[in-house]
Amino acid sequence: MTESQTPGPRRQEQNRAPQMSAEPFTISRFLDIYETSMLRSILTVSASFLALVAQPTQLNAQTFPVSSSTDEERSSRDDRQSDGRQDTQDESDSEQTDGVEPTRIIDEASRNRTQSRENSEKSKSLFDRDPADTRKAEPNEFETYVTRMLGRPLQRFGADLVLPGGRDFERSADATIPPDYRINVGDTISISLTGSAEGSVERTVDNNGRIFLSSVGEITLAGVRQGDLKAVLTRAIGTQFRNFRVGVRTTGLRGVRVFVTGYAVNPGAFSVNSLTTAFNAILQAGGPAAGGSWRNAKLVRDGVEIADIDLYDILINGNRANDVTLENEDVIVIPPAAPQIAVAGSVRREAIFELRGSETIEDALRYAGGKDELAEIGRVMIYSTDMTGPAGPREILATEFGSTVVRAGDVIQVLAEGNLMRPTDRQSVVVRVEGEVVNPGNYYVEPNKPLEDLIKLAGGYSQRAFVYGAGLTRQTVMVQQKRSFEEALDLFEIALASSPLQSANGIDQRRSEVQLLAAKATLAKLREAKPDGRLVLETKPDSQSLPRGIMLENGDRLVIPPRPTSIGVFGAVYRPASFQIDETNPRKIRDYVELAGGTLQAANRGHIFVVRANGSVLTRAQGAFNQKALPGDVVFVPIRTQSSDIFTKITQISSIVFQLGLAAATVAAIN
Question: Among 5, 61, 88, 613, which one is least packed by beta carbons within 10 Å?
Fold first, then answer.
C-alpha cells in the first residue's frame, strides 16, 4: 500500500466517522484503519529523520530540550508524553547524536509575552482599598497652636510629600532590579540559550524555591542574589550541556502582603511587589497621622524588630541604609510622635520638626535648611511653652546654638535683617535722570545727598529745560499714594452701597438703578488706576533750579521736560483742543476756555479746575478762571451732575483719573 493510494478513500472514511455511519464494524475494516494509522506514523518518523540528517554536521553539538513554559504544564507532562511519544523519542535521539547542528527550539517567551502583560495589568497597587478612600493627616494640637501664634499655617516636616490619592509610592514591578535583590517564591525568570542549545523559556519559582528544566532537572533559586542568578543557572545547565551561552532576566516579581499599623493615616494590610521598601509603604499608607512619628518607625519580621527607620534621615540626608526591602507578612509600626518644635522666619524651610533625643538649636536649623540670605546671623528668638521658665521670648546668640538644647513646644524664630528699612543717611542710592540735562542716565550717589547734586552729576540743565515742569517720581511716594487711593475707593464703595442715588426731588426706580450701575462701573475702572508716585515740587513758573534740600532716595526718577508752548482745554466745551500760548502777551484761563467755544449747557462751571505743569491743581474756588495761563496748563471743565447724590463726586474723580491721568495726590487735593 502506497501513500498515493491511501489519502482519498481513507480520508473520506475519516470524515464520515463523526457522522456515525451505520456500516457494521468488521475485522477487515479494523485492519484498514490500523494500516492507515501505522502508515502515517512511519511517514512522520521518516520525514523527521531525513530533515535531521540533511543538515551539516558540527562536533560536540547537543540539543537542549526545553519543557513546557509553566509549572502547570509540567504537571501534565505525562499526559502530553503519552499523546506524543514520537516527538519525545526524536528529542532523545537528538541528545545522543554528536556532529549535528543545534536544533532551534520554539521561543516560548514570545508566546508568554501577552500573558505577562495581562498579569502585570492585573497586579494590585500598594493599596487594597480604593485610593479615593485615602485621607490626609489632620493638624495636631501643636500645629494649631503654632498657626495661631504665627498667623499662618505651618505643617509638619514631610507632610507635603503625602497627597490623598494623588501619588503612587509603590516601586514599579518593571523597574531595574538591584543586584542585591534575592529571588523569591513566585518570581518569574526568563532564560535564553544560544550555542549548542538555543531557545528561551520562562519559569516561575515554585513554593519549594525551585524551577524545572527538562534534561537538567530542578534548580534551587530562592534566596539567590539577582547578581548571581546567571552564574547559578550556568553551572546547573553546564552539567548537561557544553558550548552554550545563557541570558537571564527576572521578568516578574511576586506579590507580598505587609501591614502598616500604629499611628498611620490609613493603617491596614497592603499587597506590594517584592521591591517595595518600608519608606514606600509608609508614604503610600498616608504617612504618620497627627499623633504619629516621622522618626521612629519600626519594621517587625517574624515577631523580631529588624529596623528602626528615621524618615528624616531619608528626607534630609538621602540615607536609605535602614530602608529595608519588605517581605511577606512584614509589619511596619508607627509609634506616637516624639516631642515637636517649630522653626519659622528667615530659613530655607519653615516647618514643625520632631525631636529625637537631646537636639540643639543648631540641629533644628539644619533640619530647616539653615538661614536664608535675609536672616540675622548673630541670634534667634525662642518662644517656649514651659510655664516655669521666664515669660516672653528668649534671645539666643549664635555662639550658643550648638549647646542650647531645644525642648518640646519651643518655637524658634529667625529674624530678618536684610529687608530692614535703613535710615536715609545710610542708604546706597541709584537714581535716574532724563530729559533736558547735559548727560542723562543712571547715577550712583552716596547716601544723604540732595537733589541738586544729581543735577551737577548730569552736567546741569540744557537750554530748553523747563524746571517748573520737572517730575520727580519716588517709590515710597507711590506706595503711600496707592494705599491712600485704595482706602478712598473703599470709602466710596461703602457710600455707594448705602446711598439711594436719587436727588432731593426724587427720581423713579429705573433711573436709580441706571445710576447705580453706572457708579459701580466707574468704581471698577477707578480700581484699575495706578498712582504714578509723583512728588509735587514747590517751584515757581520762572524758576531756574529745583528746590534745595530734597534728599535723594534709592529708585528716584527725575524727568526735566522741554518748555511747552501750549495750553490744553478739555471736558464740557464745544471744541476741546490744545492752544498755542504767547508768553509775550499772556492771557487768562477764561480766555482759552472761550477759544474752545465756551462751556456747554451741561458743563459744571463751578468746578472747573486747572492742572499745572508741576503737578499742582488750581480750582475755580481759588480763582482759577481769572489766573494767567502758564505753559503746560491743562484746563478741565467737568459735566454737571445731580448735586445731591454721591455719583457727583465719583464722576468728578473718575474724569480726572481717566482723562488727565493724574496721580492719587491730585485726587486727594480735589477732594
Answer: 5
